[in-house]
Amino acid sequence: MYSLPAEWYEQDGVMLTWPHQDTDMAPFLEKVHPVYLKISQAITQRQKLVLVVHNSILKSEIKNQFIDHKINLNQVRFVIAPTNDIWARDHGLITLVNPEGKLKILDFIFNGWGDKYKSFLDNKINSYLIDQVINPEVQTEFIPFVLEGGAIESNGKGTLLTTKSCLLNPNRNPKLNQNQIEYLLLEKLGMKTIIWLKNGHLEGDDTDSHIDTLVRFAPENTLVYVTCDEQKDSHYEEFKRLEAELKDLKTEENKSYHLIPLPWPEPKYNNQGYRLPATYANYLIINGAVLVPTYRDKSDEIALKQVQKAYPNREVIGIDCFPLIYQFGSLHCISMQLPKGFLKS
User: For residues 262 and 281, what is the distance between their CA atoms, to the nearest angstrom?
Assistant: First the structure.
């Protein structure tokens, strides 16, 4: 039986979708490109990087940048595909694994988080991936259901973690109720149970509370989660309720989860005065390492130490992601891990 693995399952690579002048990142490209280069460097030192690029001109430009920054191009697989934006976590393919290590790839619908943004090009990216880089022995299935990768977390043991405010939002699958959505997800993702969280929301987050901004599974029945200890902050009560909710959860063995709290960064705002969703929960696990977003904040070092507790056998690497949150996402949002066996040899 195929099921959704935990993110720490061994990987062939990670997919990024490169920002360009026709994306919403256009005003920030000068500051965002160094973030992508740093992430690309960390990935290619450990595994393959699948890079979705808007056109062949952009591919040539990126190649030159990679050479300048001594990034190993032998570790990079380029996929030329027209793109609206950069959020690979949400327009990317979702990969299942069976006990023999064989893969099954699912292609869900991406509708720009409930038609908030243009997504017609991004919703087609997966067809280019299937044609250009995917192992032809891997089975693929299109599923006519709106689902973003950032909305779900797997512990690799049959439990799926998500939020009601996202998956039950009528801007995704309005004709289905909670029971119907749960049945479909359990069947298609090969899971046994779903934990539906009721609490947790970051100002500036336009995903309707993706789980990867709030709570993450870690090995050994561990949950890594966002906390807010600033009583005057508008998030304080919300995240106290989230913490209480997590304390009540039980594992498959009917035991409490081991909880590792993440610190609360100081409020970040854009030039228009809108609050930006800076969250340390938006980290990416790769082979042998965890890439953790930092925000030029006094809590950065504490966040790295807390994540290290959850992944003691991996190197924890801080990546300055302050420029990314100006477009309301972070490190995990722009990436999608590709389990072992995903890529053509």
Answer: 7
Q: How far apart are the first and last CA of the chain?
A: 24
What's the CA gap between 252 and 233, in Å, rounded? 35
Query: Running DSSP on this structure, what letter comes out for residue 97?
Result: E
pLDDT value at 345 more than 90: no
Please state, in angstroms and as integers, the Cα–Cα distance from residue 342 to each residue in 86, 103, 119, 154, 173, following that order. Answer: 21, 7, 25, 18, 28
pLDDT for 121: 97
Q: Could you give the domains of the chain?
A: 11-339 (3.75.10.10)
Q: What's the CA gap between 293 and 238, in Å, rounded?
A: 22
Q: What separation in angstroms does the CA of 263 have from each of 29, 230, 281, 294? A: 28, 10, 10, 11
Dig out the tokens for 279 from the structure: 């969250």
Evaluate whether 296 touches 321 at the Cβ level (below 8 Å). Answer: no
- The residue type at 157: K
CB 91 within 8 A of CB 110: yes
Stretch 261-281: mean pLDDT: 97
